[in-house]
Design brief:
The structure holds three protein chains of three kinds.
Chain A lengths: L16 E12 L2 E12 L3 E5 L6 H8 L9 E9 L2 E2 L7 H7 E4 L10 H12 L5 H14 L3 H4 L12 H13 L5 E5 L7 H14 L4 E5 L3 H7 L2 E6 L2 E7 H6 L4 H7 L5
Parallel strand pairs in A: 3-8, 3-9, 6-7, 7-8
Antiparallel strand pairs in A: 1-2, 1-4, 4-5, 9-10
Helix pairs in contact in A: 3-4, 3-6, 4-6, 6-7
Chain B lengths: L2 H53 L2 H6 L3 E2 L14 E2 L2 H32 L2 H16 L2 H22 L9 H26 L2 H9 L4 H30 L2 H6 L17 H10 L7 H35 L1
Antiparallel strand pairs in B: 1-2
Helix pairs in contact in B: 1-11, 3-6, 3-8, 4-6, 5-6, 6-8, 7-8, 8-11, 10-11
Chain C lengths: L9 H39 L4 E10 L2 H4 L7 H6 L3 H11 L6 H8 L6 H11 L7 E7 L2 H7 L16 H12 L3 E5 L2 H4 L12 H32 L4 H15 L2 H13 L9 H26 L2 H9 L4 H29 L3 H5 L20 H10 L4 H31 L4
Antiparallel strand pairs in C: 1-2, 1-3
Helix pairs in contact in C: 1-18, 4-5, 10-13, 10-15, 10-17, 11-13, 12-13, 13-15, 14-15, 15-18, 17-18
């Protein structure tokens, strides 16, 4: 069945959806940052959220793992489901939720601990390893999946902050992976990195999507076009258009989308 | 431009330049008062202390285990009866400071952590001023409280439980000194904890850690150098404290680690030696300056180490 | 899988329980700290509240001219020093006539404070027309009587263990039954200087001494502190000398207060031979102690003034001095004043350095200038706390209450100033 609406292009409906947002509003005090956004996140694919700065895409991303809870004046209404379960249900344990939905931030923020300890932190607090050996294998596996292991295998006890910017970000990715999440949210992960480091991480995302679902916020349309399968365009807090990445970039339905892509706005 | 105006402007310019120069001179001079004060302190302590060490050998001061400051009655009886060893004073000071830190560190740290991380804004608005109030109480009031309220209670509780606790016990003085230090440690730690970047908290929460895990496993380890610096500054404050111990601690030197006994401290001895009726030149009164020099070196040393640790920690996050 | 986020596995429950416990540790720590504060305040108020009242005995005194001023000279000096004891004893006997023996009469007379006759002398010297008349006067009772009236002496304790004997208590009861003994507002606490007798001891001398000391302290520390801060923030280039000055200031802020007292003793008293135990020297010592605090606070205020203000003035052709003193300093002044008031509040409570410069003597007179020998309020508290007489316990607590009241007032002023005049940049 092909679903075609005013705002979305053809979506392959045989891809299962792991997260859905329905009629989500986000308020910072009286100011409304997100207006009535509904979006499906297909599993094992990369969804890119694009739009000019200040359009609310990071705010929307943070709804998925309830990181907006940490901001006092932020209020979220609407429904967000993860595997069919409403994540704002009072019975939901947000600590458990965040072990299923991980996050990588704009500026790499490794803990002031060793590389090993950075990656081991998550598995430790969630009790994922029953022995030291198991913990070590989780850490090594995560570092490998983040494409960092070969570069740091001989200095796991050095501080995480001694790595380069790109390496630090991959360390943060390894850290998120170590908890074995199903979804990884990435908030402009490459905006502080040079083109080479960016390319490494984009390649990484391609291999990561086999095991994880990725939602990435990016201010670079080219990056969205390169890595994602689904793209959602945000403008002034509204979801203007979403759908298959190729379709959005070659043949957008909405005029605003067209204007953004051609550089007239943003 | 007419020559009269030119000349006038030239004159005014020179006048203004002289004014600027004079004002700058005044400013520099006032800044030198700080240096003069330091020189004054060091000079007065060193000078008098040296006069003391002419009468009493430095080795006795630093290594003798007895403190009973008596001066010779006859001129040829130099040092015969008196013993001027600073060690019993040092142990007394450290014992009371240790007890004080034992009280103040957990209470101050836990309060700071709770206020910085968990408390609602309304709670913070009420509790912080109250802690500031504790900080603003003059030490003579703490001393009164220690001597007339706390010491009798401790003594009564002790004898009820079968212990003989002195009415000038180190415990009473240390306990009250600890209460005085609580706001000191709390506000310094609060600054340190708030300085830990939000990014680290976000990273920890993003991985599904509880707030407590974030605090104990990420924030406190990150803030540890700063917290250690704060504790060292608090110890330095405790060592230099005078009124609480003058009013609540003992006068006789006592080389012991027992908190139930009365001990005396360096600051107490400085006060007793200088507020009695003694001529200024006797070894007794000069001893006060020797103790003060020792005290100054100790507290400044601690402060320098503390500031170095805190600086290194700040550079990590700058 | 889908219900994992709802799971309350044992492990998850343990983690949440640990968080709950941890938060309670914090709450308990805060509770204990504040409990100490409340305990201290209540202990002091409990002991000190009674000091605001003082027991007085009312007697009908016959100001017999023949005894007091036989030569009718009306000389105030002679009147002050006349012998008032006989007329007082006569009045006491008229109330309690059964006292016959001389020893008992002396004891009866001792119910009054030794200062009572001085009060009478003052009264007559001020208004000699009272001579020859009979008047009802309220006289100060002795400290023992006062303590008994305030319930601080236990009559059930064996007579040997107390100064107030059973006979005295009998007489007090007689006075009570005639309404001749009452607790009245204690003016002497606020109008007298120190005294050996608790009932006559007041804090006025100490308060004035503190005032003069703080005055000298302010006059020295405020200008020096502001000028130094202005120099370091606005003028000084980053070089060895300014670094050295900064290091000095930071170190001075950490020096124990008693060391400043020793500085005062050896340099200002012994070397410059300034008068001992005066607010002048006390003020200088306090100023040196407070200077680092004022400098550090003022510097941070100056730093918070945006550069754009200075740029605007300089752009108009103002000189460095004009920019600084016409623009920057006035904007910074409220903040710098706040810091200074807080520094003064700390200086008010300082005791140790003042002990070192000799302010530990027993001073009765009220000081009239900064070179008069004086004491300060915290030193007075220290001295009274050491006194053996029971009557001083309540007075010490009352003096503490007055001191704390001043401190709270100063802090409120500073906070009010900060809130009223603070700008948000």
């Amino acid at each position: 069945m092909i679903i075609e609406t005013k705002t979305s292009q053809a979506i392959q409906s045989n891809t299962p959806t792991i997260m859905t947002a329905n009629n989500v509003d986000v308020f910072y005090g009286k100011k409304q940052a997100i207006c009535n956004v509904s979006l499906n996140i297909p599993e094992n694919q990369i969804t890119a959220l694009i739009g000019p700065s200040g359009c609310g895409k990071s705010t929307f991303l943070r709804c998925f793992n309830r990181m907006n809870d940490t901001i006092n004046i932020c209020r979220v209404s609407g429904e967000i489901k993860f595997s069919g379960q409403n994540i704002y249900d009072p019975k939901v344990d947000v600590v458990a939720l965040r072990s299923r939905i991980g996050m990588v931030f704009q500026k790499a923020n490794p803990f002031p601990k060793s590389i090993f300890e950075n990656v081991a932190y998550g598995p430790r607090i969630h009790g994922l390893a029953e022995s030291k050996d198991e913990l070590e294998s989780i850490v090594i596996r995560s570092l490998k999946r983040a494409g960092l292991y070969d570069e740091v295998s001989d200095r796991l006890s050095e501080p995480g902050t001694s790595l380069s910017g790109g390496q630090q970000q991959r360390l943060c990715i390894a850290r998120a992976i170590a908890v074995d999440p199903q979804v990884i949210l990435m908030d402009e992960p490459c905006s502080a990195l040079d083109p080479i480091a960016t390319a490494i991480i984009e390649d990484l995302m391609e291999t990561m999507k086999e095991k994880y679902t990725i939602v990435i916020v990016t201010h670079s349309m080219q990056q969205a076009a390169r890595v994602s399968q689904q793209t959602a365009f945000f403008h002034l807090g509204e979801l203007v258009e979403s759908g298959d990445t190729q379709a959005i970039f070659t043949n957008p339905i909405q005029e605003r989308t067209q204007n953004y892509i051609s550089g007239r706005i943003g | 431009m007419r020559p009269q105006i030119q000349n006038e402007l030239r004159r005014r310019n020179r006048r203004n330049q002289i004014k600027e120069f004079v004002i700058q001179g005044v400013l520099i001079a006032s800044s030198f008062v700080a240096i003069l004060t330091t020189i004054g302190i060091v000079a007065s302590l060193v000078f008098e202390a040296f006069r003391f060490f002419e009468k009493i050998p430095l080795t006795e001061f630093l290594f003798s285990l007895e403190w009973s400051p008596q001066t010779a009655i006859r001129a040829d009886q130099v040092g015969a009866s008196g013993k001027f060893g600073v060690i019993p004073l040092l142990t007394g000071t450290l014992l009371i400071s240790f007890i004080a830190m034992l009280v103040a560190t957990p209470l101050g740290l836990l309060s700071a952590i709770y206020l910085a991380e968990f408390a609602k804004a309304k709670t913070r608005d009420i509790v912080k001023p109250l802690l500031e109030l504790l900080a603003g109480i003059p030490t003579v009031v703490y001393g009164f409280f220690a001597a007339l309220v706390v010491a009798p209670i401790i003594r009564a509780t002790g004898s009820g439980a079968g212990f003989d606790i002195s009415s000038e016990s180190a415990l009473a003085a240390g306990l009250v000194m600890g209460v005085m230090l609580i706001p000191f440690i709390s506000s310094l730690s609060d600054d340190v904890i708030n300085a830990v970047p939000q990014a680290l908290r976000d990273a920890s929460f993003g991985m599904g850690a509880t707030h407590e895990e974030t605090v104990t496993k990420v924030i406190i380890p990150a803030a540890t150098p700063g917290i250690i610096g704060s504790l060292l500054l608090a110890i330095s404050r405790a060592i230099g404290e005078t009124m609480i111990v003058v009013m609540a601690a003992g006068l006789a030197a006592n080389l012991t680690l027992n908190p139930f006994e009365a001990v005396t401290t360096m600051t107490v001895q400085i006060v007793t030696l200088l507020t009695g009726d003694q001529e200024f030149d006797s070894a007794k009164t000069l001893a006060a300056f020797a103790i003060a020099l020792f005290l100054l070196i100790l507290t400044l040393g601690l402060n320098i180490i503390a500031l170095r640790i805190v600086d290194k920690y700040k550079k990590k996050y700058a | 899988m889908p219900n994992y986020i709802l799971s309350t596995s044992r492990q998850m429950a343990k983690r949440h329980a640990r968080e709950k416990r941890f938060k309670w540790y914090g709450r308990i720590a805060i509770f204990i700290s504040i409990a100490f504060l409340v305990f201290m305040f209540s202990a002091i108020i409990f002991r000190g509240a009674s000091a605001f009242q003082q027991t007085k005995i009312s007697l009908d005194i016959n100001f017999s001219e023949s005894i007091l001023d036989p030569s009718s000279s009306r000389d105030p000096d002679l009147l002050k020093r006349a012998n008032y004891k006989p007329i007082v004893v006569e009045s006491l006997l008229s109330v309690i006539p059964e006292v016959t023996e001389r020893r008992d009469r002396n004891r009866l007379y001792k119910l009054l404070s030794t200062g009572a006759v001085f009060d009478l002398g003052e009264k007559v010297a001020d208004d000699p027309s009272i001579l020859g008349k009979s008047k009802k006067v309220w006289l100060l009772a002795s400290s023992e009587v006062d303590l008994f009236m305030k319930g601080k002496i236990d009559p059930n304790v064996s007579e040997d263990l107390r100064r107030l004997k059973d006979r005295d208590i009998e007489w007090i009861e007689i006075l009570k039954s005639e309404g001749r003994i009452k607790k009245k507002f204690n003016k002497t606490l606020f109008t007298n200087g120190d005294s050996r007798e608790p009932e006559m001891a007041g804090i006025l001398g100490a308060a004035i001494g503190s005032f003069f000391s703080l005055l000298v302290c302010f006059l020295i520390a405020f200008p020096l502190g502001i000028l130094t801060a202005v120099y370091l923030e606005e003028y000084a280039k980053k070089n060895f000398i300014t670094d050295f000055i900064e290091v000095n200031i930071n170190n001075l802020a950490a020096v124990p207060s008693i060391v400043f007292g020793l500085l005062g003793l050896s340099i200002f008293l012994n070397f410059f031979h300034l008068p001992r135990s005066t607010p002048l020297v006390g003020g200088i010592v306090l100023a040196l102690m407070t200077l680092p605090t004022i400098i550090i606070a003022s510097r941070s205020i100056l730093r918070s003034i945006p550069q754009s203000i200075r740029d605007a003035a300089l752009g108009l052709g103002a000189s460095k001095t004009q920019t600084t003193f016409h623009h920057v300093v006035p904007l910074a002044m409220p903040g710098m004043l706040t810091g200074t008031i807080l520094g003064m509040a700390r200086a008010l409570g300082e005791t140790a350095p003042l002990l070192m410069i000799g302010m530990v003597a027993f001073i009765v007179d009220i000081p009239k200038g900064v070179t008069d020998v004086a004491t300060s309020l915290p030193v007075q508290i220290f001295l009274w706390a050491d006194s053996p007489e029971k009557g001083f316990v309540e007075r010490t607590s009352a003096a503490i209450m007055v001191l704390l009241a001043f401190l709270i007032l100063m802090n409120i002023c500073a906070v009010y100033l900060r809130k009223r005049l603070e700008r948000r940049w």
